[in-house]
Amino acid sequence: MEKLKLSEIAPYLGATYNEDAEFDSVCIDTRKITKGCLFICIKGERFDAHQFADEALSLGASAVMIHSDIEPNGAYIKVDDTAKAMLRLSGYYRSKFDIPVIGLTGSVGKTTTKEFTHLVVSAKYNAIKTLGNLNNEIGVPQMLFQIDNSTEAAVIEMGMNHFGEISRLVNEVKPTIGLITNIGVSHIENLGSREGILKAKLELCEGLAEGAPLILNGDNDMLQTVKDEHHKVVFYGIENGEFKAENIVEADNSTSFDVAYYGKKQHITIPTIGIHNVYNALAAFVVGYFLHIDPQLSADALADYVPAGMRQKVVDVDGITSIEDCYNASPDSMRAALKTLSDIKGNKKIAVLGDMLELGDYAKTAHTEVGNAVAENKIEYLLAYGNDAKFYVDGAKQGGVKNAFLFDDKEKLSEMLLNIASKGDAVLFKGSRGMKLEDVINTVYKGWRKQ
User: Fold this and answer.
1) Which of 186, 222, 334, 341 could pair covalently with 107 via S-S, beta carbons 3.0-4.6 A apart?
2) Contacts (Cβ under 8 Å, ≥6 apart) of 298
3) 151 annotated to bind ligand
4) Nearest 5°: CA angle at 284, between 97 and 374?
5) Does 176 carry a binding-site annotation?
6) Predicted local distance difference test score (pLDDT) of residue 188
């Protein structure tokens, strides 16, 4: 981060300060204090960082940002709301840099698309990207503060649960390229309908530069209807779009395809499987096109992809192919993962599925439909865990799956999986983050490796 002064930011934030101070980083956690930083006292549901203001100053912070009536023993700037002020400050800081910024969102696949996109952008630019799950109103500012004079581009992921969140984020991120991966049913509990989700995602346009590319999945039934006279709408897909993936071939845990666009073609191979990842990589290629990155450079960059965390990581454990996909789950990503499991060469196909959370009144229908998808993809075994997992089992049995089992205990689930899985089989682990299916993964991996 480049240096700022309290006297510079106070007028922009409508704030007051007791004495001027200069800072070259922003921090919200006293465990991560760096000398010369601005410590922002965020008040959360369970804690209030104002109680750590003096500690932050003693640890080397140049100043603290507060909204409570306290008198820190050092420089401070007082605002109406520290969380809102941090977001506004990040937008002020981002405006100091004339660089390409890719702002992306979507119901499913945005994090993987971010990783692909960062690889492509980094083929030409010194680029930063959103780290971990820093894609909300607290996380996005932290990423914008990472920009400095050596940064040539940024890839910023934006998530949301409610109307207005993308709007608040995008007006500070100020992207020069916008990207929406798809419109599914994630957070439908808060947004009411897929039409509501589309409306919330299209808040991205509010902060997107006039005339900038708005890159959309042309195969998504909701996004393909989008028209925007203020931006250059560009579609990508397998069936529809100016950029189309053709000749898709999956083999040996990799996928190859050709991108056909504007009379040209580019061959791409990515070291992962699943049609959804073709969409993710294709979106990144389109971003590269609008940043004038050589298509072969983009293809070479995509070939270097490494799955992040537990996001559809394919591993071989003593001859058993395991797909670890436990970071998040929605009906759309579940169907995509089941299709991936179905396409893997192997003997038995086993799906270990945990609940999909935050679906509200749609939960029963969504879980039942995923159970139907287990049957449609000819998955021989379903091991389901969670409160709503019974609807997976119901849906699977409706489709003719005989071996569909419900568990309320991970140890019992793990025990059954150890009994039925053998070399040559393929197993999918998929559930919302809160279900913590990695507990099952850790248990069965130990068992498989002992066999």
Assistant:
1) 186
2) 120, 123, 266, 268, 284, 285, 288, 289
3) no
4) 135
5) no
6) 67
The one-character DSSP state at 47 is -
Q: Using CA atoms, how far apart are residues 178 and 70, in angstroms rounded to an integer?
A: 41
pLDDT in tens, 116-153: 999 999 999 999 999 988 999 999 999 999 999 999 99
Helices 295-302 and 275-290 pack at an angle, to 10 degrees, of 140
Q: Which helix (H) or strand (E) holds 141?
A: helix 139-144
Q: Which CATH superfamily is domain 4-83 in?
A: MurE/MurF, N-terminal domain (3.40.1390.10)
Query: Do 68 and 44 touch, CB atoms closer than 8 A?
Result: no
Which CATH fold topology does 313-450 show? Answer: Protein-Tyrosine Phosphatase; Chain A (3.90.190)
pLDDT higher than threshold 90 for residue 219: yes
Q: For residue 106, say whether it is annotated as part of any ligand binding site.
A: yes
H-helix or E-strand containing 233? strand 232-237
Residue 253, judged by CB atoms within 10 A of its CB (0-12, 13-18, 19+), counts as middle
How do residues 231-243 score in pLDDT, each as one tens digit?
Answer: 999 999 999 999 9
Q: Does domain 97-302 have CATH number 3.40.1190.10?
A: yes
111 is in an annotated binding site: yes
User: Is 330 one of the annotated binding-site residues?
Assistant: no
Query: For 134, which DSSP code?
Result: -
CA distance 309 to 179: 23
User: Helical H runs in 228-362?
Assistant: 275-290, 295-302, 331-343
pTM of the model: 0.81
How is residue 178 written in tokens? 């916008």
Say what angle helices 438-450 and 410-420 make with each other, to 10 degrees: 40
The residues spanned by each domain of the chain are 4-83, 97-302, 313-450
CA 190, CA 319: separation in Å to the nearest integer? 43
Q: In angstroms, rounded to a whole number, what is the distance separating the alpha carbons of residues 392 and 376?
A: 13
Q: Which tokens hold the place of 137?
A: 């109103």
- Locate 200 and state its tokens: 């919330």
108 is in an annotated binding site: yes
Cβ atoms of 414 and 444 within 8 Å: the answer is: yes
Neighbours of 100 (CB within 10 A): 19
